[in-house]
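Our consortium's second objective concerns turning raw sequence data into structural hypotheses that experimental partners can test. To show how far this objective has progressed, the report includes one record in full. It was chosen at random from the queue rather than selected for favorable results. The single chain below, 424 residues long, was entered without modification.
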Amino acid sequence: MENFPPPNYILTKSAVEGIEVYMPTPPKEEKYREVVEFNCPQCGANTAYSATDGGLTCTNCGYYEPPRKAVVGKGAERFEFTVETMERAAHGWGQARKELQCQNCGAYTSVPADSLTYTCPFCNSNKVIQREAPQDVLRPRFLVPFKIEAAACQEIAREWLGSSWMTPGSLRRLGEVANFTGLYLPFWTFDATTQADWKAQVGHRETERYYSDGEWKTRTKIVWKWESGHASLHTADMLLEGTTRLSEVLLERVKTYNLNDLAPYEPKYLAGFQAQAYDIPLEAAWETARHAMREETRQACRNQASTSRIRNFSMTLDFEKERWRYILLPIYIAAYNYGQKNYQVMVNGQSGAISGQRPVDWLRVWLAVVGLAAPGFTVGLIGIIILLLEGPGFWFMVAGFVLLAIGLVIGFGLLLQAMGMDDA
């Protein structure tokens, strides 16, 4: 028979003797190096990535390797949710690394194989177990390299720690001794287009005249009418963290990353830095992203209604062009103890944005609240005294009540701000 077997088919093992069985040619696997060593070509010592310009510098003899410019930005390749994509995806870090498991907070952190650190960057604990980093997790495909040096974090932290009058005066000095650890955090990005058809009863206010008790009157009523429509919404680069080890509140404040700096992942970027593998898998992160996209689409549908008065709303929704990326983003973390309590500070390794927890000098805060309430209380008390003396004290009492209310509202806001600083 001519043209047999068909193109892209190969002979495979048959369970029946004398019968030939053919199968499709397996897709070519992506080629990658499992382990990459970064040793100085001049003296053989270890090299370290430089956040200043992206080059590699030997920590022993000073040999310098210029950076390779390979920024792809938001044009970085997305990947479909297919079995083939997952099977062909590379795994591991691409180089030998160690993993530290913190016995205090439970965090897992990847560090260079030659690292001598035994401190958890999340809680500052020295109770860690060291082992070889597993290579069975998905490999990052892109990352944003560090642009801020660790030394610059000291100045950023010093100014931030002492920038609020609510914190103890001695807190500013902690910015000089805080040990910032450079860490690549795992993130997922998602793209999708949602197509939704909706219908609902929409209420319109109408005025009608009616005759009652011998005269014409007017009244307002709500008339419900069915409306329907279609909404299409495209979401690009929805960024979701791939770790549960950091405060969502603090991380959201420093998540000011510019994905235009995305570069293809290379193990060299991890030289001298710690990294964390994701503990929120792709499926769970995608479910969170789908829920957020679903709610955004629902709101877009409701916004199409002719009024905001809606009932019996229903929507059918389809997802199209679903894509994802697994990326690493740079951050510096410092954990410090103050007053027998552990606090955490984060600095965006790309932009320098800072967020964290700060202890509060509650004596200062309560004195400020009392000071805000004192004028109103004093004026009101004077009004009461004048009124008891049969004088014109009524307006003093009114003024005192207004001042007291204003002072208490401002004081309550200060208390909420102080609690947010201490417990973020």
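The partners drew two points from this record. Confidence is low (pLDDT under 50) at residues 27-37. The two ends are 74 Å apart (CA to CA). Both points have been shared with the crystallography group to help prioritize constructs.
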